Amino acid sequence: MDYDFTRDIYGNVCAEFSMGHEAIGSWLSEEVGEKQALISEILGAVEQLKNRQRLDYNREGHEFDIEISMDEVIVRAHTLDTDSEMDMPDEDLDFYDQESFARCGLDDFAELMIGWQQFVTSQR
Q1: In contact, 64 and 76? CB cutoff 8 Å
Q2: Looking at residue 1, what is its pLDDT?
Q3: What is the pTM of this model?
């Protein structure tokens, strides 16, 4: 999972991710942004998950939802919502869009969130 953190010409934070993980970048840019309280909440939940102090963490956003378990992190756009659980959509279905769904491991996600926190605090 390759990514880059930048600011646009208006000073807004942007996270750009490699193919297959674009939804994580959109989630970071649009849902998390520079909200320090939310970043701290997520990092706290990740630490609790790593220490087996909680089973999962879920957060519904305006455009994307995130589901974090002890094994993986799933980011899913509301545009993919169906009556089924938050499982990966069948790749053969027409509605599947790589920019709307992504998953990664908990350790990679923890590293990502620490980097994001450092980026948004150092770029003020």
Answers
A1: yes
A2: 86
A3: 0.83
